Amino acid sequence: MELEAVYRDLLGIGLAQHDAALLADCIAKSKSCSWINNDNIGKENVRGLVNYIKNNNIPIELAIRHLETRDKFLWEVKAIEKK
């Protein structure tokens, strides 16, 4: 998938620019990555993101955890090798 196209799609889902840029890079390069930031992500955005990953057969596992004590979000993306 092309980096710029994925980035635009992720922004359209409602992701913050920082999250969209990092996630687009992970998707386009099929690599695992993780980051922490304080940009809020709503349930609708998560649903849209899950649907996007599923509908486009993107081989990644995604976990987003709210770190309540720090009011930050931990993103973990794991690239899945195609067999």
Describe the secondary-structure layout:
Blueprint: H1 3-13, H2 17-29, E1 33-37, H3 43-55, E2 60-67, E3 72-79
Antiparallel strand pairs: 1-3, 2-3
Helix pairs in contact: 1-2
Evaluate the radius of gyration.
Answer: 12 Å
Low-confidence stretches: none
Count of strand segments: 3
Note the run of SSEs as H and E: HHEHEE
Q: Give the total of domains.
A: 1
**Whole-number mean pLDDT:** 95
Characteristic key phrases:
single chain, 25% strand, 3 strands, 83 residues, 3-stranded antiparallel β-sheet, alpha+beta
How would you portray this structure in words?
By secondary structure, this protein is an alpha+beta fold. It has one domain. 45% of the residues lie in helices and 25% in strands. A hairpin with a 4-residue loop joins β2 and β3. α1 packs across α2. The radius of gyration is 12 Å and the shape is globular.
Please summarize what this structure is:
The protein has 83 residues and is α+β, with helices and mostly antiparallel strands. It has helices at residues 3-13, 17-29, 43-55, and strands at 33-37, 60-67, 72-79. A 3-stranded antiparallel β-sheet has the order 1-3-2, with helices on one face.
